[in-house]
Amino acid sequence: ADLDHSGRMSALGGALLNALMFNEPEQLIPWSVQASKSELGQLAVPVFALAARGDRLARRLLAESAVMLAEDACACAAQLVPVGERVAFVFNGGVLLKNPARLREVWRELRA
Q: Model-level pTM?
């Protein structure tokens, strides 16, 4: 999307292509259709690395995904638990469990 909007490859786009050993962004679409959950999850590594170095796009994507994850969890809980009852969320997955700062960010969003 960043390439489509700006007409140039961002540092994050380049890092994702490098991680997948692709030469062209057009290679991402067919790959993403057949990629496993684990393969998709591996792309978090360059996103976190760039975010740690201050890349605005990577940081924005991580912040937005924390909000989306919390919103989805709350929507699911609202369908399963009557209003007013306590809900216990169980965190799972390498992206959350291997990144304590990320886990805290999602937790803050859930509490909000």
A: 0.82
